[in-house]
Amino acid sequence: MPTDGPALQITGLGVRYGATVALADVDLQVDAGEVVALVGPSGCGKSSLLRAVAGLVPAAGVVQAAGRALHDLPAHRRGVGVVFQDHALFPHLDVAGNVAFGLVEARAPAAVRSQRTRAWLERVGLADRAGDDVDRLSGGERQRVALARTLAPQPPLVLLDEPFASLDPGLRTRLSLEVERWLRELGTAALFVTHDLDEALAIADRIAVLRDGRLVQLAAPHELMARPADPWTARFLGHENVWEGAAAARLPGSPAAALLLAERARWLPAPVGGGADGTPATCVAASPVRDGWRLVLDVPTWGARVAWTARPRELPEGAPPRAGASGVLEAPDEAWHRWGDAG
Amino acid sequence: MRPPPFAHALGVLAAAALALGVLAPLTALVGRTWDAAAARTLADPQLWGLVGRTTLQAAASTVAALLLGAPAAWALSRPELPLRRLWRALFVVPFVLPSLVAATAVLAWVGPRGLLGIDLRDSWWIVILAHAFYNVGIVARIVGGHLEGAAPRLLEAAAALGATPWRRAWRVTLPTAAPAIVAAAALVFLFCFTSFGVILVLAPAPEFATLEVEVYRRVARTFDLGGASALALLQLALVLALAQPYLRAQARMARGVVRSAPAARAATRWPALAAVAPAGLLVALPLAALFALAAAPPGGATLVGAIRSLATPSRIVGLTDAPTALANSLRFGVVATLLALLVGGAIAFAVERGGWRWLDAFGLLPWAVSAVTLGLGLLLVAPGLAAGAWGVPLAHALLATPLVARVGVSALAGVPTGWREAAATLGASPWRVARRLDLPLTRAAWASAAAFAFAASLGEFGAALLLRRPETTTLPVAIAERLGRPGAGSYAEALALAALLAVLVGASVALIDRAGGRRRGAEPF
To answer: Which end of chain B is less enclosed by CB atoms within 10 A, N or C?
Structure first.
């Protein structure tokens, strides 16, 4: 496997469909063995980016993989594996025929081909289905065949377009973890599109956020969550406590825009005698969520409401506060992310 | 994905074949038209009478086919119709049936020695009846297929909104079927307007002649090539103009299709049976009459006698013997099918994989140029070739090319782009994608295209008649030779040959179509 240069280096990548610009001037790098997730709202250009890298749509810009220029090559010479959202299994070939497809194109000797096909079928747990028609497979099985088919020729770089979108949640989590393991074992670099942020956070080394065809941010998961590039990205990532303009000006330090990282703040119900230090905050609503209670806190000093998730052990007697319960919000400086000017 | 070089190479091949095979003959026709005789022909008031009569004839035939075919179409879309597959198969029969066999079958039913005992020969009745027999299946299949795909969910919605069955028929079924009805009507009108074999056999008197018949007569009887060329071009212009409504309706039809779950069965099957019965009888009765009379010929002749005389090489009476005609038909059929697959396949790949969109429409040209016109054009541009052993198979290949191209284009368009992209990302070059995906996935379509092309060549009459020489006579021409002679003996021979040709065509369609594999093949309409 060539190791000269990153697994994928994109410079100034642009895709347009007629007058519509789907992707504009995107720079992105995926290091060898690295897994990068691509997130963004529908229509932001995620799939266009993958298709441009794979050579399935005409694109402007430079695409290099391991020091090799790909942008002038047709799709079949790029050596980039793609897992398609709808699997795109070939209906006229059986399970083994699908997995072997790329090996046949790579002119692998018959012995190597059958050995590797068998190995991959075993790895994905479909060894006993080798001769089956693909249309008799379940959704999860189809997905496994698609993955095995893509990985069998051992491409140094794999692109996955929402590979788990069509699966139900339990299967989805299991399979995504399996895929991550295979990628790590083989040292394959991967760029995968997902609309599931949890999936991206769990699997990816770095996450790229796309908006309206532009790359907004590319960062490691914790970095991305703690320091989103702008208020839009913060909201897209699921942060609720984001303020801009006049609303932000009333906050401590009067920033142009600010994000309060709720998990680094803490709300304490006011003891009868008082004494805790922090900003007074009244609980106005409490609703159960997976890992505790989601509280809506009214902070009169800031003229703002703050959403905060309380874990049971953080609350006296593990019970949710009643609406109207008073308390204080501890928000140390590291709980804040401030932007100089609102983006 | 970028169009691969081989698709362009196929495009060049196909374009060259069409230019040589169709454009060159047409140019020769235009050249011939520039003489005084041609100008006189077009100024002749008798010609415009002929055009007017043919228009009325085609309109009446179309109305007859619609009146019988539309109810049958509705019935075919109903799940409660008993023996639905059998009815459907029955309505394919006229489509693949050679015109000469159709004409002979109608003759066996209501002709001079017909089973019904009434002689309608040389009347408008028999022309319209034969055209309705020949085309009712087209109406039933086009409209029926459309109704089946589009209607059920909409009808349920209309019912839920309070529409009675009649209101549903009026406000939902009819409007959704309208584009299909228009498409079917336009196609039937075109077929009847350019009818040849049916007219020549059933109504040979001059007042029933279509332009196509008139072109043939000028070439064959008076050798008026200039006049024939002028008429052929006039017919081509009219056909191209008349084809517009068909193409527009077909485009609207493709847009309107909403696939949905099949309709629920109605409580009683009688309405569906009553709707399909008239059209079914119209198709079944002449066929039954043909086989009945072939088995027991009228006027004292016998089947055994007919077969014996057919098998005898009889140059003295000027009739081609059956073994020669059969061998010619089969040989021409094989050659024409292979050539049509080559050119039609090249068109389909160039259109679908090379982006040669214009070739799609250009490839239909042999259909607009009728068989007799094409034969005449080939005769003008290369007399030696056209009248030689290769003339008829070449003409047949050209005539079958649009059919293969149509089937091929729609089959290749049906291969999802995603599969081809997946193959490309797995390292398959466009050529390999064509070999490993396109061909295996469309095999059934090519097989049925081949079957239709072979059947079309077996049954083709116009070009085969115009270009015939004793040693290139095909089965349909051999039938026509015998129908043109008086006497119970030659009539019995014609019946036997027509029955043989019908069986041959049916068997070739059934066999080759089956050889294509389990997956469903495509149909040209």
So the answer is: C
